[in-house]
Design a protein that fits this description.
The structure holds two protein chains of two kinds.
Chain A: E1 2-11, E2 14-24, E3 29-33, H1 40-47, E4 55-60, H2 69-75, E5 76-79, H3 91-99, H4 106-119, H5 135-147, E6 153-157, H6 165-177, E7 184-188, H7 192-198, E8 201-206, E9 208-213, H8 215-221, E10 225-231, H9 236-243, E11 248-253, E12 257-262, H10 265-278, E13 283-289, H11 293-305
Parallel strand pairs in A: 3-7, 3-8, 5-6, 6-7
Antiparallel strand pairs in A: 1-2, 1-4, 8-9, 10-12, 10-13, 11-12
Chain B: H1 2-17, H2 19-47, H3 51-60, H4 67-104, H5 108-112, H6 118-156, H7 164-190, H8 195-217, H9 225-249, H10 252-257
Classes of the chains: A alpha/beta, B mainly alpha.
């Protein structure tokens, strides 16, 4: 659905995005992560045919945004970082105005306005001036606007920012449900928990691409993996034994719990267990802790900064 | 074109609701089209009691038979210039408000993400400023004509308006001036985040209009059809240049990367 080949975008002397390439399949949820100023918004703008790359090639639905910008904009929906609503007109009129620029029938337009306003609990206040809405309501209205023409591709920049936990949960469920409708979602977020729960794959960017992979692959490839062992009794006497195992790069011990950091748990774990049992340890619990996306992200960004 | 009209329809509703725009227009209309001409025409009799005024009329218009009629004709020429203030002022109030409001609310990016063409967006914004400018100028022209004609008819039995000069001003010069001010306002608004500073363009443009009034009163020249047509020609030549610049500024990429945003 989306193919990005070696795109670079420069703003005079500043390079916002440098030589990035990736592909996104139809109905995939693609998490796009990176620190502030990493080039996320620039990438979204290039993909939604708002600005052109300085070099490189983008193909969306087999067309080029440079040549067929109007078509690309008709099949994409964009939720910008700030809601960007007309504050002096009603919520209904906001949606009616924006949707009027898409080639959809009047009936479909009205049906969709009703559908999304109801879905996001805004129908009862549809005639209220958008400026009177709370931050969360504005965000939901902006999301409705991005969806109003039922786009094939949805670009979401911080979709749950400013939402209360209940609304955020609802929005996340909704994003997940878009998969069934074969909508491709490009999700830009600082909420790493959200990215890990929704994304099929994530891309970590800091001007250049640092990593693209699914969460499972990222966890698998994490350099330092963590193993947690809970003992019956004090851990002090086992630390000396564990320190003798070269493959263990770090040990954190508390009363009856030890956390070990190692590169290849699949080969080292049996050695650890054997050695501990040999020295009389009573192991109550042994578990390999899966790294969270946040840990992986921070590690990768830190590494990139080096 | 269809999309430009959609923009125009939405924007014009907001203009009507914005009293910061229509209140100054209403005051100017009352002042220049109703109060000033009536006050002048009514008080012309007492002005003529002043020997300096009579001397001025005899000097500038040596062939004058009826000083009252001459004075009215002279002032009618001054009012032509006042009439130009309205097409200059209306777009300078509307266009910056319309563009800077989009900047304040961050509505330009979502709007540009729709299949709309930037030329349609520019056209819609231009209509929003030009249509009311033309309508209000024409209404003022009609009100002013009726006022002067009624009062003048009562006093002298003559209806001096409309003259060809007035028709040229109302139907040719005013729209050209409105267009120029609209384009200038759009260009300035792209670099500004403050409505008031962008609206300042209107007050800058009014300065040459005051200069023309001053020079005319001082007897340097008298507005006539030739001067007006020459003025139209000069301004028409400026129009394509400003349009070209506005189109360049109103490019999607330019708006998102170079415009000064709040």
């Amino acid at each position: 659905m989306i193919k990005v080949e070696n795109i670079t975008r420069k703003f005079e002397k500043i390079t916002a995005v440098e030589n990035i390439s990736f592909q996104i399949k139809e109905s995939e949820i693609f998490g796009f992560l990176g620190p502030n100023g990493a080039g996320k918004t620039t990438t979204i703008r290039m993909l939604s045919a708002l600005i052109q790359p300085t070099s490189g090639k983008i193909t969306i639905d087999n067309r080029s945004p440079q040549k067929d910008g109007e078509y690309i904009r008709s099949i994409t929906g964009l939720l910008t970082e700030s809601p960007g609503l007309y504050e002096k007109i009603s919520a209904y009129d906001n949606l009616s105005y924006y949707s009027s620029f898409y080639n959809i029938s009047e009936k479909k337009r009205k049906d969709n306005i009703k559908k999304y306003l109801k879905m996001f609990d805004l129908w009862d206040r549809k005639d209220d001036i958008a400026g009177t809405y709370s931050k969360g309501m504005k965000q939901k209205l902006a999301l409705s606007r991005a969806l109003i023409h039922e786009p094939k591709i949805l670009f979401l920049d911080e979709p749950t920012a400013g939402l209360d936990p209940e609304s955020a949960h609802m929005v996340r469920n909704f994003i997940e449900s878009l998969k069934k409708e074969k909508t491709t979602v490009f999700l830009c977020t600082h909420n790493l928990e959200e990215a890990s729960s929704l994304s099929d794959r994530v891309c970590i960017i800091k001007k250049r691409i640092i990593k693209i992979a699914s969460l499972t692959e990222l966890q698998k490839n994490k350099k330092n993996k963590e193993v947690e062992i809970i003992f019956k009794g004090n851990t002090k006497k086992y630390i000396k034994t564990l320190k003798q195992i070269k493959e263990i790069s770090g040990i954190e011990a508390s009363k009856n719990k030890i956390n070990l950091f190692l590169k290849k748990p699949e080969t080292v774990n049996p050695i650890i267990i054997k050695k501990l049992i040999d020295c009389g340890a009573e192991i109550l619990y042994f578990n390999e802790i899966k790294a969270s996306l946040e840990e992986i992200y921070l590690d990768l960004i830190k590494e990139e900064e080096k | 074109m269809k999309n430009a009209l959609k923009i125009y329809r939405k924007e014009i509703k907001e203009v009507i609701k914005n009293k910061n725009i229509w209140l100054p227009i209403l005051i100017i209309t009352l002042m220049f089209s109703i109060i000033m001409p009536i006050a002048f025409t009514v008080s012309a009799g007492s002005i003529l009691k002043d020997p300096d005024t009579i001397n001025f009329i005899n000097k500038v218009f040596p062939d004058s038979q009826n000083p009252y009629q001459t004075l009215i004709s002279f002032m009618v020429k001054q009012f032509i210039i006042f009439l130009l203030m309205i097409p200059a002022m209306v777009p300078s109030l509307i266009a910056p408000a319309s563009i800077i409001m989009e900047k304040e609310n961050n509505t330009l990016e979502p709007l540009l993400a729709t299949p709309i063409k930037t030329s349609e967006l520019l056209l819609g914004k231009t209509f929003t400023a030009l249509v009311p400018a033309f309508a209000i100028s024409t209404i003022n022209f009609i009100i002013l004509c009726i006022n002067i004609d009624i009062v003048s008819y009562i006093k002298t039995g003559v209806t001096p308006l409309p003259t060809w000069e007035w028709v040229i001003v109302a139907l040719i010069l005013s729209p050209i001036l409105s267009f120029i001010i609209t384009m200038l306002s759009i260009i300035i608004s792209s670099k500004s985040t403050d409505v008031r500073s962008a609206q300042g363009i209107g007050s800058v443009v009014i300065i040459p209009i005051y200069a023309i009034i001053g020079l005319q009163i001082a007897g340097f020249f008298m507005i006539n059809i030739t001067y007006l047509l020459a003025g139209c020609l000069v301004l028409i030549l400026i129009c394509p240049l400003l349009l070209k610049l506005a189109v360049k500024i109103f490019d999607r990429e330019n708006i998102l990367t170079k415009w000064k945003m709040k």
